[in-house]
Amino acid sequence: MKNKLISFVVILWISGCATNSPIENIVPFPSPPTTLSIQSRTGCAAHQSQVNQAIQNHDLDQLDNVLATLNNQCSTAYLDSVKRSMAHIAAAQAGRSMEQAQIIEAQAILKRAPTIVWSTQVMRGDMAAYDKQWQKAAEYFNQAIDLINDPQTTPEKPAQTEIDKVYQSALDAQLLAGEVIGPIRHQKHPMTRSIGLKTGYPMPVQFEFGGSKMSPKGKKSTQKLANYLKKQRARDIKLIGHTDTKGGHRINDKISKQRSLAVKSYLRKLGIRAKISPSGRGKREPLPLPRWKNLTQTEIDQRNRRVEFRIIN
Q1: Which of 162, 197, 228 is at the close of a domain?
Q2: Boundary-marking domain end, from 162, 191, 215
Q3: Which one has a higher pLDDT value, 214 or 129?
Q4: pLDDT tens, residue by residue, 125-137
Q5: Are 225 and 285 found together in one domain?
Q6: pLDDT at residue 28 is higher than 70
Q7: pLDDT tops 80 at residue 23
Q8: Residues 115 and 214 grouped into a single domain
Q9: Is the pTM of this model over 0.85?
């Protein structure tokens, strides 16, 4: 059987620019269905054309007005489908406001969503990222992933390219948060190739500034990684350290190797008996910037201080 390669990105965090739009390449939201099938009680069918027209026009006002009538005449399944369409419409409209840096307006529009769908959580994640609430942003993006994978809340999954962007947003927010957020899981399909991943989940680990000593938060993150590796029964692990772009190659090569060695040492203490091969790439492979344009140079440097875990089984 061929070996399966699983990669993990680990940030080594030590402790914006103003533009018209705070977000680049905003995650596209699905177009609501142009028509909704009627599976309802007597009387609901009379409102079908009105509902479909409002959805086609992305008219939240009209949908708000008709929803009260539908509550008394339509089945729960049909009402849920209408509410999901309204939520996607609200998320799309909020996204357009975000692209114009109209944050307060975007927040107001999103409040009109009558239910939670994956696109509303992506928008909430982007809003949290705009305020640099990275942990909160990562939580929202993880919620979006869970909703995408739930056939009841997402009967029709978005395009794979859209799913990839949500995973990428969760990764970027976690790297900036500097800690493990949510369950450890890896994507079953390729992630963005620009950061060298085949499949994986980000594992942030904090280090003290200029050294290889892990912070308490860094140890906690590595403990979660160790638990996951045990469940995966990993037998061969590669650690590749990276630094920010400050300084020369010689010192950065040394620091990146020391940090991968520190992670290896702590994994050994936690009972990982797999083969672990640490190495360092210094500053040679900086990460591409995320969609958010409000990052400072300090935050960009934090993202680049990382270790990539690659598990070969």
Answers
A1: 162
A2: 162
A3: 129
A4: 999 999 999 999 9
A5: yes
A6: no
A7: no
A8: no
A9: no
In whole angstroms, give the CA distance from residue 173 to residue 198: 19
| Host domain of residue 63 | 47-162
Q: How far is CA 280 from CA 215, 231, 238, 263, 277, in A?
A: 20, 27, 11, 12, 10
Confidence of residue 36 (pLDDT cuts 50, 70, 90): low
Q: Do 74 and 192 reside in the same domain of the chain?
A: no
| pLDDT for residue 85 | 92
Instruction: Provide the pLDDT for residue 192.
Output: 35
Q: Clarify whether residues 209 and 255 are in a common domain.
A: yes
29 confidence band (pLDDT: 50, 70, 90): low
Are 246 and 276 in the same domain?
yes
Looking at residue 54, its amino acid is A
Q: Are residues 250 and 123 in the same domain?
A: no
pLDDT tens for 216-245 read 877 888 888 898 889 889 899 888 888 889
Q: Is residue 182 part of a domain?
A: yes
Provide the domain count of the chain. 2
Instruction: Specify the residue for token string 């914006």.
Output: 16
Is 134 a domain residue? yes
